[in-house]
Fold this protein.
Amino acid sequence: MEEKMKRPIVYAVVVTYYPQADTFLPLMNELVQQTDMVIIVDNTDASDDRFFEVLYKKNSYIEHINIIRLGKNFGIAAALNVGIEAAKIAGCTHVLLSDQDSLPDSKMVFNLLRAELEVSKTGVKVGAVGPTYTDLHTKITYPFQAQLPRHFFYGHQAPTPANPHVEALTLITSGTLIPIEVFQDVSLMREDFFIDQVDIEWCHRARSRGYHLFGTGYATMYQRMGESHLRVWYLRWRNESAYSPLRIYYRLRNYVALCRLEYIDWRWKLRSSWYSAGIVYTHVFFGANRLEALKMVLKGVWHGLCQKMGQYEG
């Protein structure tokens, strides 16, 4: 009983790639106050020190961060794994995953722990808990993917005061809190995915091992999905997240790779194909680089079928 009542030790693992001070420093200001330590795993080229010279001048919290510079871009999955392993060695009980341009609210970590405690009291194995998030580009607050009663395909469900915790099929990387012992069973992120769908694959793998994932209305976070937004016609004009042609390649290639995995329900694969088709439609018909986007769509699908994974070489 005494072991169960021990204070959680939360280490944040933040992956960076040429971070910008105007978005990264506000994130750091929140994380150093809400966690026991922030591990920054940087994929920026070793020759570029500009941002870290700024960061080292922030003496108010430099003692609360551990910077691991990889020297080149190894991808988000490899960087997350380096940070998770470092947090595990340091003796944390939980890791909080984050990218470089998210902004948690002032009590996000406290409320994620609170949500984890509440749902664990129901007797389920909690694999991860994530906050409700709003895209700063589109201003859309996203519900969670959930398998709703009497629905064949998954739907989407937002937390409510009466039901603040939604059992989710997947959670996005940023803002997700994971008990460290879960990695011993589920293992780490798949590095061959490099970037995009890394979180989705891990979530499905965790669920296949009997863990439950929850999105909670107790905690909120602001996130930048994509590089900007596009105006797209879907029976009406609306804003959609915009991605570079290279990101489109990774999203399509890794979606095809997900479809090859036996532990992912075929109903999820079929339903999620509509989302992948939406990315193609959005960027090929309304994007700024339409021909390049189409080229990378075709390459991504082909490489996914051929199981050509890892970093894109082109």
Remarks:
- The radius of gyration is 19 Å.
- The mean pLDDT is 93.
